[in-house]
Structure formats: structure tokens, C-alpha cells
Amino acid sequence: MSQITLSPNRRPLGKSEFLVSPLAWGMWRFAGDDVAAAQARCEAALAAGINFFDTADIYGPDNDEPFGASEALLGRVFKAAPALRAQIVLASKGGIRMGVPYDSSPEYLVEAVDASLSRLGVERIDLWQIHRPDMLTHWAEVAATLDGLVAAGKIGAVGVSNFTVAQSSALKKHLKAPLVSTQPEFSPLALAPLFDGTLDWAMKHGLAVLGWSPLGQGRLGDGDPRPGRRQAEDERLIRVKAALSAHGQKFGVGIAATAYAWVLAHPAGITPIVGSQNPARIAEAADAFNVSFTRAEWYAILVASLGENLP
Predict the structure, then answer these.
(1) How many CB atoms lie within 10 A of CB 148?
(2) Start and end of every NADP-dependent oxidoreductase domain (predicted)?
């Protein structure tokens, strides 16, 4: 029976100039004042073969830090170790404002990109993504602003995050620059992109797919299920972890690496965003490339998540 095997080789980021690792490192929990420790986390990701770093201007308040804190910390790392910047394809996001919540007006997008560039201490953000869609700005205005930012050299490529297929399509229609990526939540516990057209649309148009929270918001780590969840959720989580664990044991890897591998196996070329801030856990993410699947094995994990057989 044919096997779906995984490659750690870098690949194009959609229709852009950038070559990126199949895994990305996410910086939602990139926090603190210890620049040396922050640099060690960045170096752990690079040592694991990850050259694709994904941050956002809104990363900070969830860690009881100011808006922009994650970007500012990465900027301090770049200042302390300037050689790191050239090794990284740097992605960030904007368009969320505290208390608004969404703003893609031309004035704010330019302001947000300029602020991110300042915090990061860089001249260009390689991939800049609209973090969530703003329903009060026409897509033609959004597109014209993004095209202007590309032309000015402030951003290298344009992506979207948490967009529906219709929203992505509407923005793409007005853009002169290519829309190179989309970032939905995707994991063995968050299956919507399989069924709502997101992955099919991305394959149709050659977009890269970045899957946020590939461990189901941490529930698919290598520990016990979080207590206090509803019984039905616990039963589903137990089923999925058991299926991932059994498959991973065949290759000597843990549940987390097997979950990354399951995401990587989809033909859309999904890039799981590794969220751990633990250098050892970041290193373990590369174990995903030791895993392979038959079609039956991959579908068995999907069935475990759905709780019913496929038609």
C-alpha cells in the first residue's frame, strides 16, 4: 500500500520569492524581558530546520504585556544578534485594534505596518497578513493599500488570516500583487478547512496554507487532556489522542509530532505553526518528518475526530 511521506525540504511560499520550511514557528507566546532566552528560542527553531517565523502586532495582551510586545521582543533579539534576520522569512499580521476590534482602513493598515517595522527594527516584513477581515472596508481599498505597501518595499508579500473563501476571493480580485497565503485554524480537532472549501480554493489558486494551532490549542500535546472540559469534548479528545499515539508509536514519535505530520500530509502543503516556546518541544517538532501514512491511516485519524465513519 502506498505511503504518504513527508519532506523537510524548503518550498515556495505560494507565488512569492520566498522559500520556507514546511513547519513555521509561531510567536503568540513569545514574551518576557530576557533577550538571551528569547534568542535561544529563535535559535532552537532554526536548529530544528524552521526558517519561517510568524508573529503579529496583537501578540502581547494575551500574555499580560502591551500591544506589540512580541514584535518588540523579536526586534530586541535582532538588535542583539543581527545575523539572525537574514536566516528568517519573517511573517507578521495586523488589522486588529484593541477595543475596535477590526480595522483595515487604508490609514490604519499603513500605520500598523509602519509600527510593526519600527518595533521589529527591520526595513521589510516578508509576509504581511490581514489578521482578521474588517467588514467595514471595501476590498478594493484594502487591496490598493496593500499594493502600495508592496510597491514601497515595506512588505514583500500579502496574505490573509481567518478569512472565508469568499473574503479571500474578493480581496484577490482587486489585488495587483499576488495573494500568496491563507492562515486558518487547522488540526485533527479543527477540521473546518477540509469541508468549507478553504484548502480546495488554496490549491486551485496556488496559495500557501499556514495552519494555526495545529495541536488543537495545546490539547494534542504529549500530556493528559485538560480537565474540566465537557464530557463529549473529552471523549473526542481521548479518541483523537489515542489514534495519534498509536500511529506515532510505529515511528517512535509523540502525539504532537504525529499531529503535525497529519497536517503536513494533506496535499495543500499546509504549514503547521508550532506554538511552543520550549526549545526542546520546538526541536521535537522535526520528528514529524519521521512519520508517514497510508491513506487508511490518515483517514482513521479523521474518523476518530468526526466520531463517525465517512460516507
Answers:
(1) 16
(2) 23-300
Question: Residue for cell digits 468526526?
Answer: 306
Q: Is 299 a catalytic residue?
A: no
pTM above 0.90, yes or no: yes
Q: Which amino acid is it at 21? A: S
**Domains observed in the chain:** 11-223+255-289 (3.20.20.100)
- 233 pLDDT more than 90: no
Q: Cell numbers 518550498 correspond to what residue?
A: 11
- At 154, give phi and psi (nearest 5°): -80, -30
Which residues sit opposite 94 in a β-bridge?
Answer: 130
Give the DSSP per-residue string, 130-156: ESS--TTS-HHHHHHHHHHHHHTTSEE
Q: Give residues with Cβ within 8 angstroms of 62, minimum separation 6.
A: 28
**Residue range 139-192, pLDDT digits in tens:** 999 999 999 999 999 999 999 999 999 999 999 999 999 999 999 999 999 999
Cross-strand pairs, 129: 93, 159
Residues 6+ apart with CB under 8 A from 290: 251, 252, 253, 257
Average pLDDT of the chain, as a whole number:
96
